[in-house]
Description:
By secondary structure, this protein is an alpha/beta fold. The chain has helices at about 15-20, 40-50, 60-65, 65-75, 90-95, 120-130, 165-190, and strands spanning about 1-10, 30-35, 55, 75-80, 100-105, 130-140, 150-155.
Amino acid sequence: MTNIAIFASGSGTNAQKIIDYFEQSTIARVALIVSNKSDAGVLSIAKKHDIPTVVINRQSFYEQTALLDILEKYDIGFLVLAGFLWLVPAYLVQAFPHKIINIHPALLPKFGGKGMYGHHVHHAVKASGATESGITIHFVNTQYDEGDIIFQATCAIHPDDSAEEIGRKVLKLEHEYFPKTIEKLLRASE
Length: 190
């Protein structure tokens, strides 16, 4: 069984879906939640499910490798970024080659990069006049949103859709496909 660590900065809706999906699994389980915000909603979700949590600060994340010891303590074999807003440092990417994935709320390579997250992405998609948006699940490297693409799913955008409506459509795709894609990757690596 693979122990998953979810890295999240926000409310944790994707983390909740992943926790629920793997709750009865024999393949994987969520064994740790890592956040860079002490008030992130994802920490409450973890508490509700008795999942250990770690809150990290910028200095320790980028200037030290203590996080590797924590991940080893919980026997973590796979990292999932679910709304985690910091760039992953090289030491972490090197320690988990092709074992860190992220979900992005748009169809990369469009609307990616530093500062392109959450509502910022949906406003940019709306402003562009795009007729579709979606999700991209990709491996993580040391650049924002530039890792190899694993999976994409699309949704239609109507001209009268607000950025908020685009966000709701995209979130529905995230919740549907993120846990399934994690499972497929873990099964393929067995």
